[in-house]
Amino acid sequence: MTRRILMPALLTLAVCTLAVATHAQDREGTGTVQSPRGGPVPDLSGVDSSGFILTEFQRIVRGFQIAPVPLNLQNKDLALVGLGSYIVNAEGGCNDCHTNPPFAAGGDPHMGQPKRINAERYLAGGTPFGPVISRNLTPYGQGGKPANYTFDEFRRVLRTGVDLKNLEPHVPSADHDLLQVMPWPVFQNQVDRDIRAIYEYLRAIPVREGFPE
Fold it and tell me: Which DSSP state fits 26?
């Protein structure tokens, strides 16, 4: 049985554990294996951690460490932002399709180079997959809505694959327009908390011009 823990007192333990693991990676890795970039972790002592399990708290901390861009945390749920970053950057592979190109010059790990995300185009879309072009996921307008979606719209897209923007190509038809290439049949299995975390993280990343405008 998983033991549920009150977590604020364990923040230091979690960070130290991650630091030790990162140090071990640095000592044992090769030139092509890179440790997390060590991004800043905000003060999480005020986060209501009742009901958290230790592994989730570690994911939140790691999420802040691996975020490749500065985050706007004003009026954001810190726990959800950190968790969302972990899902987007360590599990979902969103950068591979939604950043064009995914890696900065000289930072492509597939070429044996130290990994460096293309922060200037991070999640701004524009990657062509035949007739399909990946979408801009960054915040839009004064409300800072990711991809210009409300949370309910964002969740509907991930759950059903419906293209609410009705952009070409229209597959299988203009009346039943579904996103292609985007792995929504996988993401639709996520619990609402994870989808909310992704949305909250995307609210916190920098605005970028991209596709569609």
Answer: H
Q: For residue range 131-152, list pLDDT tens digits in order.
A: 999 999 999 977 799 999 999 9
d(CA 34, CA 110): 12
89 phi and psi angles, rounded to 5 deg: -100, -15
pLDDT tens sequence across 85-136:
999 999 999 999 999 999 999 999 999 999 999 999 999 999 999 999 999 9
pTM for this predicted structure: 0.79
Q: How confident is the model at residue 17 (pLDDT cuts 50, 70, 90)?
A: very low
Neighbours of 147 (CB within 10 A): 22
**CA separation for the pair 131, 146 (Å, rounded):** 23
C-beta contacts of 58-61 below 8 A and 24+ residues apart: 58/14, 58/17, 58/18, 59/83, 59/86, 60/86, 61/11, 61/14, 61/15, 61/18
**In 3-state terms, what secondary structure has residue 205?**
coil
Name the phi and psi angles at 178, rounded to 5: -115, 145
Using CA atoms, how far residue 174 sits from 147, 167, 169, in Å, is 21, 9, 9
110 φ, ψ to 5°? -70, -15
CB atoms within 10 A of CB 57: 23
